Amino acid sequence: MSTCCRRCTTGKPCGDSCIAANRNCNVGPGCACFAQIGLDEKLGLHWLLTTQTGEQYREPMRVGEFEALMFQYASETDVGDCPEEEIAVEADPSPFTAMIMR
């Protein structure tokens, strides 16, 4: 099971929390992890997690996590007149469409 208490999708892990990438971490290693989204033919959408001690592993993404993350990103990002492209992503149990900004 997961050894990560918090997934840092922006910024970086610092102890048991996440901080901005440009800040210095002044505490020892904790349970927060650097997190990226992976897409694999067999696994579908999943987390690629790296602990603060360098251990790497994958963890399944729960239903609704990707959508919530994209909604959070969209609400924090000023996309202006950026073109949008729809990409169909196969995810268990059913396919959905993700809006990818470029």
Keyphrases for this structure?
41% strand; single chain; mainly beta; 12% helix; 102 residues; disordered C terminus; two-stranded antiparallel ribbon
Architecture overview:
A hairpin with a 5-residue loop joins strand 5 (44-50) and strand 6. The chain has one helix at residues 65-76, and strands spanning 6-8, 12-14, 17-19, 32-40, 44-50, 56-60, 84-89, 96-101. 12% of the residues lie in helices and 41% in strands. It is mainly beta and 102 residues long. The protein has one domain (6-101). The strands form 3 sheets. The chain has a 4-stranded mixed sheet, with no helix packed on it. It starts with 5 loop residues before the first strand and ends with a strand.
H and E string: EEEEEEHEE
Strand order of the largest sheet: 1-4-5-6
Principal-axis shape: globular
* Number of helices in the DSSP assignment: 1
Q: Kindly state the mean pLDDT as a whole number?
A: 75
How many domains make up the 3D coordinates? 1
Q: What share of residues is helical?
A: 10-25%
The share of residues in extended strands comes to 35-45%
Kindly provide the radius of gyration, computed on alpha-carbon positions and rounded to a whole number of angstroms: 15 Å
Which blocks of ≥5 consecutive residues have pLDDT under 50?
86-102
Number of strands: 8
- Which structural class do you get from the secondary structure elements? mainly beta
Could you describe the largest sheet, including whether it forms a barrel? 4 strands, mixed
- CA-to-CA gap between the ends? 34 Å
